[in-house]
Amino acid sequence: MTDTKPSVLVEVRRGIAWMTISSPPVNALTAALIDELSEALNNAHPPAIRVVILRAPAGSHVFSAGHDVNELPRNGRDPLTYNDPLRKIVRQIEAHPTPVIAMVEGSVWGGACELVLSCDLIVAASEATFAITPARLGVPYNLSGTLNLLKVTEMHFVKEMLFTARPIPAGRMAAYGVLNSVVPSEELEQTTADLASDIASGSPLVHQVMKEELRVLANAHPMTPEAHERIQSLRRDVYDSDDYQEGLRAFAEKRRPVFGGS
Predict the structure, then answer these.
(1) Which of the following is catalytic: 96, 110, 141, 207?
(2) Which residue is catalytic, options 66, 106, 110, 111?
(3) Which of 61, 76, 106, 214 has the greatest number of beta carbons closer than 10 A?
(4) What is the pTM for the complete model shown?
(5) Is 141 a catalytic residue?
(6) Contact in structure between 188 and 125 (CB atoms under 8 Å)
(7) Is 176 a catalytic residue?
(8) What is the assigned CATH class of domain 8-200?
């Protein structure tokens, strides 16, 4: 029997849990990887653990390519439902009782952007880029995913990221208040460790309460049942469309999609 290497490596240093997402070549967010990350987070609780750091292996050119497109359904079923693995891990990070820091090196794509943005603080290497790519795949984000973007930056910047799917440099992300720090790659780990150390010296009970207060306040956006149902109907139309199938085909064939709008 062949041993399977873990995709999430955990090292604990002075109450700080360093969790390395290591699934070559591009750290795709497969259901199996997300399950490992979820288990690691479940095992990282105060008072023994005061801070969690999510990272890719040192020197990575890709922090994560986001969803494993091969796992998206081909039958028109919505892949971004409440119980989708990415939705669950985002909620888990947001509700985790310790502050979670994303330490970003390399490019971040698609669903991995939301995973990173769900963290409480983000430190990025100056070469890092961020691209939100549903429009290139024909996959419309759901309401909670879009709200998570609006919670961290302004409307026009969110529209640019969603509509263009362009990689945005870390410096520009910081200018819009999305990132806490942008540093040269050789300073990334030490800068993150210093930030985590300052947090770890504080009261874990206070951190837990303040994090939950901020989570509840950030999500306090009422919506009528009619508006929710209308958005869901629009999203279902996309998953039943030729464009959705074209997006998946183009990705598999490594070419630019040709969308017809139907």
Answers:
(1) 141
(2) 111
(3) 106
(4) 0.88
(5) yes
(6) yes
(7) no
(8) alpha beta
